[in-house]
Amino acid sequence: MVVKPKITPISACCLPGEGSTINPNPAAATPQIALEAEKLSFHYGDETDAVDRVDFRIMEGEAVALCGHNGSGKTTLMKLLAGLLKPAQGLVRVSGVELNLRSSREVFRTVGLLFQDPQNQLFCNEVWEDIAYGPRNMGFSDAEVKERVRLALTITETEHLEHRPIHHLSGGEMKRVALAGLVSMRTPVLILDEPFNGLDPASSTRLVALIRHLTRDHGYTMLMTTHQMSLVPEVADRMLVMQGGRLIADGSVRELLTNIPLLEQARLEPPSITRYFYKKALMENRKPERLPLTLDEALKWYGGKGRLSCIF
To answer: What is residue 24's predicted lDDT score, i.e. its pLDDT?
Structure first.
């Protein structure tokens, strides 16, 4: 089996001025805790608990979806994990380092945040300039900056946009360029806030492919929020569910997306294909078992048996 190269975390080997290093055998290393929340709490001025005693650990290389209805606390949690908000209680650890004022500079070399609206983080005139902004401010040489930008453009398939003015980009292109900026900084942990929000189906499909490429081929650790449950199986293996500022479920995507009562409690909609087979089983007085998460799964499991028809 051929092992694809993985970008080694910058915090481990690529200090300013040192150039990049590629780990040729990512499977050889034992996974470590990449991101950890411990008794994490935060409240706004009215003392409402936006995040209430949240605990979880995310291992290196994991792709995790953070799901919850509007107001459940997931965006506030994202900001706490990225260091944009200071917790009222508890702590955040990134690669074993507690996030605080003294460690923030080191931690920011490890965690990259993609805002829900990419226009909030794209501020240079052209794409190449924007992608180069991070590495330049990290103190890398011109040659290293050029290498990082070129690699980021290649990985995110945005080479054709490198001289495009930012204000000429579509929504999907902005998301990919913003991700390219994070890739150029080689932050091994990526936090994506509603990455599919506002995208048309074609742009969502391309972004799904890019996220899978970053996690599966380059070893990035990924935590992302999304309302689109049908996309969760495409980009994540694990799922966290929030409600009322609390983490109410943590498990595999298959376990949680097929737990319809849990999703209803959290005011989340399962994938349409999953709901169809769930309701079909109930109508036939059967226990809902072996619920597909995608249309491809449904066709593979049931399509050849004449049991898949008139789904929608």
So the answer is: 35
